[in-house]
UniProtKB/TrEMBL annotation, chain A:
Domain of life: Bacteria
Family membership noted in the UniProt record: Belongs to the TrpB family.
Gene responsible for this protein: trpB1
Assembly description: Tetramer of two alpha and two beta chains.
The organism of origin for this protein: Thermogemmatispora aurantia
Name of the protein this chain belongs to: Tryptophan synthase beta chain
Pfam families named among the record's database cross-references: PALP
N6-(pyridoxal phosphate)lysine PTM sites in chain numbering: 110
Automatic annotation (TrEMBL), chain B:
Species: Thermogemmatispora aurantia
Homology family: Belongs to the TrpA family.
Protein EC: 4.2.1.20
Biochemical pathway: Amino-acid biosynthesis; L-tryptophan biosynthesis; L-tryptophan from chorismate: step 5/5
Keyword tags: Amino-acid biosynthesis, Aromatic amino acid biosynthesis, Lyase, Tryptophan biosynthesis
Full protein name: Tryptophan synthase alpha chain
Amino acid sequence: MQQHLEQQKRESSAAGPYEHGAYPDARGRFGPYGGKFVPESLMPLLSELEAAYRQARLDPAFEEELQELLRSFVGRPTPLYYVPRFSQLVAPGVRVYLKREDLAHTGAHKINNALGQSLLAKRMGKRRIIAETGAGQHGVATATVCAMLGLECIIYMGAEDIERQSLNVFRMRLLGAEVRSVDSGSRTLKDAINEAIRDWVTNVETTFYLIGSVVGPHPYPLMVRDFQSIIGREAREQILQLEGRLPDLVMACVGGGSNAMGIFYPFADAPEVRLLGVEAGGQGLASGQHAATLVAGRPGVLHGAFSYLLQNEDGQVLGTHSISAGLDYPGVGPEHSYMKDTGRASYVAADDRLALRGLQALSQSEGIIPALEPAHALGYLLEMGARGELAPGSLVIVNLSGRGDKDMLTVARELQVTIS
Amino acid sequence: MQQYKQSEAIERRETVPAQRIGRAFAQASREGRCVLIPYLMCGFPSVEQSLAAMLAAIEGGADLIELGLPFSDPLADGATIQHASHQALEHGINIAACLAIAHQVAARSSVPLILMGYYNPVLAYGVQRFCREAAAAGACGLIIPDLPPEEAGPLLEAAHEQGLAMIFLVPPTTPDERIASIVRVAAQEPRGFIYCVSLSGVTGARDRLPPHLQSFIARVRRQSAPYGLPLAVGFGVSRPEHVAEIARYADGAVVGSALVHLLERHAADGEAQRAAVRDYIRSLRECTVRLP
Ligand SMILES: Cc1ncc(COP(=O)(O)O)c(C=O)c1O
């Protein structure tokens, strides 16, 4: 502990060049970001989790079970799929590939992480799983793996999200999970995380908190990155096979940042690959009604980590808005903050309308209805093309993190169509 | 922002504010009792009422006061303090407003003040500036529930520079070895006490104290005794009989959520509110006497 304190004093927050593979350090930091800003009750638990995770990763049996279930239960590898007609809409001569996480079991990338962490929980002898969910995709993924492994499952979900994602709430219940409505604060994802942490603090000995993104205290950002990196590892291999070279641009939407980190990380050591994260611009950055944490926030502490944060002058966390519940979060994973400051990745925002355009364009040009979250990346890509930012011959991969079924009611409402 | 003109009362006090915490515990100990520490949220139900409640608590016999700094995401708090925090923020309370309240309490009384709040508002205010202005406003110590010792470096340094104690929480699930290392950090001068969290969980009034509280306190005591660091117990403490039990084996009792309920119940009438707080604290204070 004393050593930690000394080290903190010496630490400079200046961002150096991006160092691939060097982070997190022993204190769970990515440069200045990350750490363990949690109530004391959780500190021994986090150490235990860290040790158990390290052990599991060294155990061939754990790796084997994980890989086998990723194949047979999740349906991996997911295809890397060339979308010629959508590419045409972007700009002439641009080749766009989609990493089809929408084809993973339960319809989004969230299952990769839920499976990894639940296997770890089982190994640690923790049979009560709690999780937060925004769009409901992480909740569904968690409920799914808990059903498969016979674990108790409790999902915290903001009351507002319960309303707008009613279909996913029903799916979770059907899968045997208990969905607890969170009525405090802004009644969305951030409050669901608060409530999950309160549950965790109260039931430390029996409970495993299965966090759904690369957020939270160390070692979660590391673990979730590891479990999601399967996306980028596959994509890298696939693009080399299909195109014989690395892509010029890799894009993903950023809520907490797990699908983005999952596809970015395995490309991050190749400086010629540009990494671009797209955040939720909501009703426009100027309106204040958005969730563009990296674009418009400044560093602060929320949910156990030091990272970019949407906060007011007094350090109070701001309410957010996005058409997609999965991006509606004022924080972001600490490694993204580090990637931003070092310039290894850059981050932009796409507003609700652009996301809708992306969703419609992909649906109509390719017969793939994306979730509203990755539709932000698709919409932004269309705009990049229109602005002439993509040279002919550019090779682009977009992480299609999920399918759009869950969003049909929202989209219909936005398009002023009534579905009974 | 606001620079406080140090009131005469504050100037007369020693230059190390934290020493007043130790003195309050020592005084109570000489009187054969534990200290009583009411927690009151700044700006709840309103700025004026929170200030009045603090003064009423002092009148009722509080030995120290914990001033809550509101935060939008109080993840170590139960529904009661979440609600108080939320309402305080609705009134536009920020750190500067909290420090102004502290300053007014300090100007009227010599009871040591402890500030308790989450880390992000402190970070946003500026760690050094916060400590400097907190000390100037009359605070003696800080409790930041989402800042374990591993992350506390910058704040600890700034606090110590200003003579403020950093007070760390220790819940019953903490292994002995870790208790020992927390105690070592907490024992560095300027120092306060160890805040023993009665149960693993969030704040909130409970009917009964947890069954293994005494053995937990004994476990912490084994580590803290060599440093002579006092132990206060909080979370779930609400009734006179709770305080009486804590007095038997600990050095202080913290009461929080129960006061929020009390303030709510008498929200309509300021005079009744003050009287209720004073009488409630008095009833608890009577139970701080250590029975043989
Ligand atoms: C399909 C989909 N994509 C993206 C996200 C955002 O999360 P993250 O940024 O962690 O990938 C979600 C969250 O619910 C989601 O459901």
